[in-house]
Structures are given as C-alpha cells and as structure tokens.
Amino acid sequence: MTVTLTAKRTLTASSGVRLNLDNINPHVKAAKYAVRGELAVKAEEYRVKLAQGDKSLPFDSVIFANIGNPQQLDQKPISFFRQVLSLLENPSLLENPEALRTSFGYQQDVIDRAKTLLADVQSVGAYSHSQGAPIIRDSVAKFIEERDGFPAKPQDLYLTGGASSGVSTLLNVICDGPSAGVLVPIPQYPLYTATLSLLNAQCVPYHLEEHRAWGTDVNAIRENLAQAKAAGTDVRAIVVINPGNPTGASLSAEDIKGVLDLAAEEKLVVIADEVYQTNVFTGEFISFKKRLRQLQQEVPGKYDNVELASLHSVSKGMVGECGHRGGYFELVGFDPEVAAQVYKYVSIMLCPPVIGQCLVELMVNPPKEGEPSRAVYEKEYNGIRDGLRKRAFALYEAFQRMEGVECQEPQGAMYLFPTITLPPKAVEAAKAENRAADEFYCLRLLDATGVCVVPGSGFGQKENTLHFRTTFLAPGTDWVERIVKFHSEFMAKYK
Amino acid sequence: MTVTLTAKRTLTASSGVRLNLDNINPHVKAAKYAVRGELAVKAEEYRVKLAQGDKSLPFDSVIFANIGNPQQLDQKPISFFRQVLSLLENPSLLENPEALRTSFGYQQDVIDRAKTLLADVQSVGAYSHSQGAPIIRDSVAKFIEERDGFPAKPQDLYLTGGASSGVSTLLNVICDGPSAGVLVPIPQYPLYTATLSLLNAQCVPYHLEEHRAWGTDVNAIRENLAQAKAAGTDVRAIVVINPGNPTGASLSAEDIKGVLDLAAEEKLVVIADEVYQTNVFTGEFISFKKRLRQLQQEVPGKYDNVELASLHSVSKGMVGECGHRGGYFELVGFDPEVAAQVYKYVSIMLCPPVIGQCLVELMVNPPKEGEPSRAVYEKEYNGIRDGLRKRAFALYEAFQRMEGVECQEPQGAMYLFPTITLPPKAVEAAKAENRAADEFYCLRLLDATGVCVVPGSGFGQKENTLHFRTTFLAPGTDWVERIVKFHSEFMAKYK
Question: Which residue ranges does the record assign to the Aminotransferase class I/classII large domain (chains A, B) (predicted)?
Fold first, then answer.
C-alpha cells in the first residue's frame, strides 16, 4: 500500500509539473562538471555511512582527493588571517585591546589591520562597492606592482566571489552568441567548458603537451584556431591556466610569450587563470601581466592591443581559504566602455562577500618583516608550502612504482594528472557498464579504497589516453598505499 | 603635447582591441540595473569628495537611500550572530572558553553553537556541499516547518550567496531561450528584468495596484498572460516579491491564493521572493509555501502540480547582513530530475560562502527563550524593528506634507515608493537633458542635498506616472527635511 502511494506521488510529481528535463534550459542540461559529479556524490554517501558507524565498507575513511579543498583535509588556516577576520566579525573585541593581547595573542598588527579595514568597509555586513572595497583594491594594486614591477590601478580591479565567478563574468561579457568561441586548454578545469556550455558558445580545444611537462604548443593552437575559424567560429579569447589545473604545469617565459604573440596577432583576449601562482615547485611563477608589459617595452607597438584578464583567488596557495569565496581579476588593455559593462554586470549581483574581500587584502598584504605577526606567519606559510611539496613528491614516487602509470614530475598547483594504461579486459568491462574506462577505474578505486579522484574524461584528454586527477592535499601516506594496492589488484584482475 | 598623447592612447585602446561595445554580449549590454547606476556612482563620488575635505558641496553628508544596505547606515549587527562568527573565524579562541566568558561576554550558547557548526563544516575556509552544509540545511528545514506548520526537507534546500544568486540560478534553469517568458511585477526589483535580459528571455510585466496598497490583481495578470501567449511567448513562471520591493506591500492570504490559483491553472512556476518576510508592519507575513500547503489540503488535487521556489536571505530583516551574502531557496514540487540540474548548476560555482551559510543558520535558529544570549538578542532585534517602523512612518509623514507627492502607508520591506507629480516645466527641462522626468528629479535631489534615491523608471511604473524609491534606513530626520526643502524649492522653480 505504501509502495503504491509513493509510486503514485512520484508519478504525479514528475508528469504534471511545468518543468522537466526536456524543457528546461538545454544549455544547463548540456553543461558537465565532473569535479562534483557522480563520484563526489558517492564519496559523500560513503562519508556519511562511516560517520554513522557503518562497518560494512572495506575502508575506514574517505579521502576527498577529487577537489582542491585544503582545509577539508589537513591544512590549518593561517593565524594572522583568521585573527583579523574574527575582529572584523566582532569589532566589540577591539574595544578591549589590552585583554585581547594578553589573553589570546592578538598582536598589535592584527588589531591595527582590523581597524584599518573597518574604517573603509564600515561593517563586513554592509554591501561594498560592486568592484570591491576601495582600500582592498588599493592593496591588490600594490601587490601586483610589487610582484610584476609594473603599475596596476585599483579601478581596473574587480573583487570576486572566488575566481570561478570572475571567469563566469568574463565569459558572459565576451561571448556574444553561438558562433563565439574561446580557446581552452585540454585537459582543463571544467569550469571553462561548463560556462561555455551555459552560454551556448563554442569551446575550441587546444591540447597541452604531456611529454613536454604539459607545456603549450603555440603551433598546435594556431592549427586549432585555423580549423575553428574555417568552421565559422568567431574565436575571441584564449584561456591559459598557469600553473596548470589539472596538470600542475608551470609555464616558461617562452611559452607565455608564445601565447601573447598569438593573442597580439590574432586579436584574442587572454584569460589568465593564475590562482595557483604561489603553488610552484620548480622555477618561478611569471604572470601574464608582467610578461605582457615586458614585451610591450621590448617590441613597441606589437602588443599594444592585447587585452588581458588575470585572475587570482584566496582558495589555493598557502591560503587555502576556498570556503570564503574570495578573489579578484585585473583587466589590462580593455576598452573603458567594455569595462563599464563588466561593472554593470557584477553590480547586478551587488558585491562579492565582504569578509572574503578582506581575506584577499590579507593575502596580498601579509605581515611584513619586523612586524609582530611576521614570525608565526612565515612559519605557518612555509610549513604548508613544504608539506605540499613533500606530499606531491611522495605521490609522484608512488605513481612511479605502479604498473601502467606514468606521471610528469610535480611542478605546481595542487594536482597530479597521471596517464594510466589499462588492460583491454578492463576497457571491455567498462564498456559493458556503459562507462568511460577511466571513470570505471576511478569508481572501482573509490568503492575499494574510499579514495575519490576525478577521471581524466572530466577534464578532457587526447583520444585513446586515460588519466585521473588527484590532489596531493591529504595528509599521510596510508591513502597513497591504498591506491598502490588497489591498482596492482585491478591490473591483476583484468590482465 | 600631453593632450595629443592621451588622445592617441585612448584612440588606440578603443579602436584596436578585440572587444568593444558593439561586439560584446548584446544581452549584457541590454541589461539595466539602476540601483547601482549613474546616481549611485555620482553619490559615491560625492562621498569621496566630502571625505577628502571638499567644502564646495551644498551638503555635508551623502545619504545612501538608494539601496537596502542597513549596516552602511546606522544598523548595528546582532551581537549573538557576530560572536559566533568570530569564533568560527578563529577557533583557537574556543580553546580558552573561560577567558572568553570572563573577558568578552561570550555566553555558553555562543560557544556551543560555534562548536556545533564547526563539527559539521570543519572549517569556514573549506568548501561545503554545493547545496550548503548539511547541518545548516537541517536548521533551515526546521525553521520553515515551525514558520509554516508544514514539513520541509533539507534536500530541497539550496544555500545561496544572497537571494540574488538564487534568482539567477532559478531563471537560468527555467528559461530555455528567447521565447521563454516570466511574469514580473511592475514595479519590481530590477534584478529580475536584468537577469531576464542576460538570458535573452522575455519579461512579461504585470502591474501592481498602487491604489490597493500595491496588491496583485489576478485578473490583470491573466490579461497580461493572455497577451504574451498570443504574441508567442511561452510563459513559464511568475515572480512575486512579498513583502514588496520597491513597494513595501505585504500580500494578503487572498492575493497569494489568487497567484497560486493562476499558477495551478496555467502551469506557472512560482518564484516567491520572500527576503523581507520579517519586515512587516501591518498584518502578518504569510509564506507562499504555507498558503500552498493549506490550499493543497483544502482542495485536494487542484494544486498538486504547482512548483514553488521560495527565497530568503540574511541581507534584510533585522539581520541586515547583506555584505555576508547568505541566503537560501526551497524547491517545492519540482521534478527530481530538474532539481538534479539545479544542483549541477550551483556546483559549477562550488559552494556559497561558508561563513554566510553559518549566518543563515544563526538567523533561522537564534537563541531560544531561557538561553543565555536570548535577552540581549531580543533587545537588539526589537530595537532594530521598532527603529525601522519609526523611520518608515516619519518618512511617510514627511511625504504627506509634500506638494504633489502621494505615498501608500508603510506595510513592510525597507522602502517607500511615492508617486510624484511634477510641473510640466520640470518634465520639459528633463526632456531637454534627454532624461526621464523622475531621473531628472532624483539627480537634482542628489546634487542639492546629497540624498541618493532611485527613480521609479529603474523599477518600472505605469505610463505617465513618476515615482522614486527610498529606503527608510538612514538615521535621524535631518535627511528627510533635506528632501522636504528640496522638493518645495524644486516645485517653486518649475511652477
């Protein structure tokens, strides 16, 4: 009886209502976002089961290696940041600075910073300017100037709710309809393809070179561009993720010049996703803005018309505060009338979270040498940096030991993106389940070990290659060993 | 020489770059959002001038009555909320609860709540579930159940970054192309028309009845609907803002039934923007969910297929924490497959700000009777409520004194939306400046008094009527007198 009732209700709900899968926005339906897809949902179900005391699973913890979410795992927030934020949330604490200092170790620079920020934003509960609070944009401009050695202006900066909303804003303004195209690296972070799907615009893929540490091959990009143009696509922009996601690659000055040459020659807006700019293990991070300004000095005229939007975020790096949704983008070389439209667009959503904006300020303007919070800041910052490097290489070494797995040496970001070569029997078994082979592998991995990674198909990969993306954020080596053991059993089973 | 150089640069920047006003997304260009438009920008410029010591202006402060931004003006945040948030930002304070209690008045319920929330979210710097942290959705479901007397389920709830992003999500999923239409009240909060512009979907306006306290006239809606259908528009949803923005109206049970009848008969998704649900001066707030469930009991069958999305926010009410960007929507009666698409859509932006989510939890689950923080909470909450009522009526009374100004008695929300009748000479003067007459009036008001309000044309109004929207958040009566004095001089000038 109950069954019948439930069935009836379900039928009614699905049949009679206005909206169904076939009449909603088809572009929403078409969008794909694997990072939080089926595997992530299943992993969350396992987590809940374990938390409820379920003993039936063959593992005792879920490892969320599918998403760059540092503080969900082991990473502690940086004390200076959080001390300032706690004062911003409860300014009445500021009225008792003596007690603060003595009881809780709030140094004078923490108190001063909170006061300075509050003097500008009034309250973190008030809307700010739609581009972000003026004082915060001033600090970001100074940070960019110091990083690059070239001027930056607060009026060109747009604070955002994480870099994702910045990307969405930029693509919304740039894409004018179904013929508009944007060059996107493959593999890529699926935000780009998903947003282009939503806008019904064209993703024009260009493959990164796995054998050359996932670098860019400008000649290959030129070919993709020519093909897209021939097919009638109006290619307007190129996305570069540097350091790379999911690849972890850190681009050389020469690779960046190649992209800027192309942008200048082909009139492409450059969208430089630089959220991993402090997650660099080998060499140094070079911003697109810096390289552009250098080239503009070296070859006067040639690069004057390049439009660059460069994004940064509090989510990654040693900050790792993705739950706060803070970030910014800088517009370089944009027509002021277009910038005014960007302003109007962001103003419709009023403003990014103000506490997240304040965190951006703290990230770009941390305690300086000689200031009271500096020593602890430095210790925490370096500890996180060294831990990430250590974990990256531990994972890399584990992959070296695994049959049929090849991985580029860690360079940056928070990810490794190994190639896996699976036996034909495994590929057949996947086909029988109507799944991509890498998805099949990742699902089995999750079921057997509780380790959640994302199949390469979620990011795009060259035909006839298989990958998965894993973060190296999870602490310890136990979970890495779980992968090694699973892999060897999997390979044996399908040999 | 300098002039020439600057001119040349401007020319280069505007002529040679890829993007210009004529080739960006035309739907972004077409979107209008007056709340943060020309007047707001000018008001901000005046504010900066005054802050820099400029004495040339005929006023000594700018009053931002253009936007519901309580904490920018006078409203203090509620202590319980901010105390918990400060502990969430700096959990190390929790390790010293004794000192906390003695030095800073953190009551035990503050400490307990922070611990409970942290046990679920782990860190406010970590991404949460894309629909929002489970514990927070549990609290929201309980709140809705208690408010309405009908069950609510956490899985039907979607935490958002303010109600605006929720509206954007819903309209993105609902609108499937240029023929899709959504019924929107006129006057309306321009988020709706702007988002429909961005989606290249049709706004189907229906006029609210000013003479009936801005109530809804279902017969008029039916006419608008029929006309839109005849013109080929596929009308899919109806937006209701209750209590109203910009009108301040609070809908009766009968008006709500009228809308739900229409939705049931015409298969319209109901988008109930209920962010002002606690800002009600006369009568009581009735949620669309409650009314729907009542009607479903009263007339079995008739309302089973109604889909309702109901929105709430931490930005308004006595909370007033708009800078934190927190909110939620509940989906009622949606096809689970459509809900899955809503989930995927929000997951592309990862999650709403976690500290804002926690604030939603505190809003819906404030200290209860007998708990240590209750007395202060109640005092603060009631103080804000009474202050808003007092200011609303003071402003209303001032409008009564003004020639050619008519205003409905305050009922709710944070706004008054008076009609103004301007002399023909003023209308001509506006025309000469190529401006709508109400825009002309508001601009003169700002220039003369520093009071920034929004012209009725920014919200939509019946042809041949003029209005402006003002919040009643600003403290004191000085600014109200500035309006009265300006108005009388303006009327005399153009008599």
Answer: 109-477
